[in-house]
Design brief:
It is a single chain. By secondary structure, the chain is α/β, with parallel strands linked by helices. The protein has one domain. The protein contains 10 helices and 9 strands. Strands 1-2-5-4 form a 4-stranded mixed β-sheet. It has a 3-stranded mixed β-sheet with strand order 7-9-8, with helices on one face. Strands 3-6 form a two-stranded antiparallel sheet. Helix 7 crosses helix 8 and helix 7 packs across helix 9. It starts with a helix and ends with a helix.
Length: about 325
C-alpha cells in the first residue's frame, strides 16, 4: 500500500500530466446545468466531495465522457441494485474506477514531558475507488443519470442567477462597483469590480465576484488563510481563489466561464510548485473547499458532519 508521500506524488503526477497534455484545468471543465448536474457528490450520502476529490473526479469525467454528478463505491452501487460495467477494452487496467482520498482519524497513546500517558489524535490519508452512475447498469438508477431526474416541466437548462445573487449578498462583504479592474483590498476589507454591464457575459461577472470573495476569506476576521495555508505565496493564493470560485459557481448553478485569463497567467508557476511540492495542490484545493463552504454558510445550512467524517461516510 502506498504511503502518504507516495499517494500525494501519484495524484499530483496525474494532475500535472493533465495540464501538460494541454487540457483545461479540471476544476474549469465545462459542466452541464440541469438535473443531476453539478458538484460531484456521493450517491448514498448526497454530500458533495471536498478538497482534492472534485478535481480527481472531474478529470475522470472528462476522460470517460461522464456528465452525472453522482459517484459511489462498487459496494454502494451493488447495495443500490446496480452493477458496475466491465472495463471497456480501450480503458487501461486500473483506470475504469477513480481513486479518491479521505482522511482517517488515528489515536495513539503517547507520553508527555512528565511521563504521563495522553492521547495524540491525527489524520492519515487513505484512498478508495468510486464509479460514476453512468458506469453502472441498473434501471432503478436512471433517476440519477444526466437529464433523467423528474422536473416540474420547466426548462432545467435555463440559467438562474438568483441563487448566486443571494449567496453573494448574504456574505455581507462590501462590494464596490467602478473602474476597470477587479481586486480585493485587504487593508480596507472590500471588493472592487467593474460595473456588471461592462462584462462580456453574466457568467464572467459572477465568476469574477466569486473569485474576489474567496480572496476576501483571507481576512483575519474570516478564515485568515493567507498566512496559515498559502504561506504568503501569490501563486498559491491565486490558485485557491480560482478553484474556490469554480467550486462556488458549480454549487450555485453558474456555468463555467470560457475566460482562462488567470489559468494562463499562473499555469507555469502552478506546475512548478506542484512538481516541487506534492502537497501544493492538496493545500490549495483544501483551502478552496473551506473558503467555498464558509461563503455558502451564510445562505444555506452548514453541514452536520465534519469534512473528514463526511468523506469517510461516503
Amino acid at each position: 500500500m502506498a504511503n502518504q508521500q507516495q499517494l500525494r506524488e501519484k495524484i499530483t503526477a496525474q494532475i500535472v500530466a493533465h495540464f501538460e497534455s494541454g487540457n483545461v484545468p479540471p476544476w474549469r471543465r465545462p459542466w452541464p446545468v440541469g438535473p443531476n448536474a453539478g458538484a460531484p457528490a456521493n450517491a448514498v450520502s448526497k454530500k458533495p466531495y471536498r478538497g482534492i476529490n472534485p478535481i480527481l473526479l472531474d478529470m475522470a469525467a472528462a476522460r470517460h465522457g461522464l456528465t452525472s454528478r453522482w459517484w459511489a463505491t462498487f459496494r454502494q452501487w451493488k447495495d443500490m441494485g446496480g452493477q458496475v460495467m466491465r472495463r471497456p477494452d480501450g480503458v487501461p487496467e486500473g483506470q475504469w474506477g477513480t481513486q479518491i482520498v479521505f482522511w482517517s482519524p488515528i489515536t495513539k497513546r503517547v507520553k508527555d514531558d512528565t511521563g504521563k500517558d495522553e492521547e495524540d489524535r491525527f489524520f492519515i490519508m487513505k484512498s478508495y475507488t468510486v464509479f460514476n452512475v453512468e458506469q453502472v447498469e441498473g434501471g432503478q438508477l436512471d433517476h440519477l443519470r444526466s437529464g433523467m431526474a423528474d422536473t416540474d416541466g420547466d426548462d432545467a437548462t435555463v440559467i438562474d442567477y438568483e441563487p448566486a445573487e443571494e449567496a453573494i449578498a448574504a456574505t455581507g462583504i462590501s462590494i464596490r462597483y467602478g473602474g476597470g479592474q477587479a481586486f480585493y483590498n485587504p487593508a480596507l476589507d472590500y471588493i472592487q469590480v467593474p460595473p456588471k454591464p461592462t462584462f462580456t457575459t453574466p457568467i464572467d461577472y459572477y465568476e469574477t465576484v466569486l473569485h474576489e470573495l474567496v480572496h476576501a476569506t483571507e481576512h483575519s476576521t474570516r478564515l485568515n488563510w493567507s498566512r496559515k495555508e498559502a504561506d504568503n505565496s501569490y501563486a498559491m493564493g491565486e490558485l485557491i481563489a480560482e478553484i474556490g470560485a469554480c467550486y462556488l459557481a458549480r454549487e450555485l448553478g453558474v456555468p463555467a466561464s470560457d475566460n482562462l485569463g488567470n489559468h494562463v497567467a499562473y499555469l507555469a508557476n502552478w506546475l512548478r510548485a506542484m512538481k516541487g511540492d506534492p502537497r501544493f495542490i492538496f493545500s490549495a484545493s483544501s483551502q478552496a473547499s473551506k473558503a467555498a463552504d464558509y461563503l455558502l454558510s451564510f445562505s444555506r445550512p452548514t453541514a452536520d458532519v465534519p469534512e473528514e467524517e463526511a468523506v469517510m461516510a461516503c
